[in-house]
Design goal:
The chain is of the alpha/beta class. The protein is 42% helix and 14% strand. The protein has 18 helices and 13 strands. The chain has an eight-stranded parallel barrel with strand order 1-2-3-4-5-7-10-11, surrounded by five helices. The chain has a three-stranded mixed beta sheet with strand order 6-8-9. Strand 10, helix 17 and strand 11 form a beta-alpha-beta unit. The two termini are 21 Å apart.
Amino acid sequence: MSSAFPKDFLFATATSAYQVEGAWNEDGKGENMWDRLIHSKPDKIKNQDTADVACDSYHLYKEDVKLVKDAGFDIYRFSISWTRILPNGEITSINQKGINYYHNLIDELLKNDIQPMVTMYHWDLPQKLQDIGGWVNPLIVDYMEDYADLLFQLYGDKVKWWITINEPFRVGEGYEKDRWAPAINSESSKMYNVMHNTLRAHGRIFRLYDEKYRSKQNGKLSLCVDSHHYEGKTKSKEDIDAANRAYQFQLDIFTHPIYSKEGGYPKIVREMVDEISRREGRKRSKLPTFTEDEIQSLKGANDFFSFNHYSTKLCTTKYLPNSNELLRPTGIFYDDMNVKHSDDPQWPSSKLFWLKVVPYGLREILRYIKNTCNNPPVFIAENGYCDDGELDDKERVFYYREYLKEVLNAMNNYQCDVIGYTAFSLLDNFEWSSGYDPKFGIVHVDFNDEKRKRTPKSSYNFLKRLIKNRTIPADQ
């Protein structure tokens, strides 16, 4: 087995706007739904932390680019703050200072031979659009298309890698769980409507690019999904079926419309949700239906397969078939899936309860993607580990070493077409509802220092050696 990455394999590191930029109300930026959540319900965030300053990348972006450059990364993945360029979410109010910021960041990257990978939407919806229902409102697709059209006009000549929406599954969770913005604790299963609208938006944006920009700009677009690797807790048929349902409801619900011949939602998801909706006494299914035009616009609507992966879960059935529990009309997405997740107690832990270190899971999910999506070119858009912020972060080095070994394993032994890998994150940053408690960065940020001093960790130097030599450094 080759221990070297191909010469054209792309190494990236990543951040997102809300997690690092700060400057939450500077230079004309509007309020987004995370701004609203952390200012109106501070108890929702651990330690009542805010992202008002975060890593101050709005002012320190040149330092960030230098760190990316010095490590040798080919690509820097970052997101654009919708309200920094469109303060109220609509193209009727364009903020030139925000536009200039991203021009400056992109130009700084290109000057240093780093390709920008731009995420259009990484969870920070304009509050003005959330006020009219946000991602539940079908009109959000029109607003998102207008926003994307502006981004292509502004930056498309310089940006060749685009991600439309980051983790649409997690976007949906914010409308059913109260730990993500907009933190709507709902029992009406809005998740289905939200995920449906993210797919509709992605299809529209992909076809917009085809029709107006592709021939001139020649970029690549992708919807960035996320998933654990799922496997049965035991070898029983019941547990294996539960793992399959977990994949169907989290991953295939987004990939089947794009990669299958027939389009639309996976058969098992469609049939299960339709039947549960009928049992709950609903007149229509909780899972919306695509129009024929939408089915066609989504088929093939990815130039590459981007996905985020961190860990693995064991699965078993939550409720027994035909039990009163399964029949109760909760309306909740996770009850519909009927899967109970657990961990192997032998798996090493991280700072966050859900992130266990299970390297083979990355190999197995890459194999799953190959088999279910016709072996698309895969760009791993996030993968990383969180700890307490140690500079000599041995556990993170171990995580990267072992997970990257499994990337090579998938490429060499299973012929998975993996084209790139992203270490998340470049910087310690605002980790959403967990505040600054878990640290994902390969670079330490001193949040007690007004200048937000950055210090590379051992993992930064490990990846620097790996990229330079195209091989995984030996165990230390």
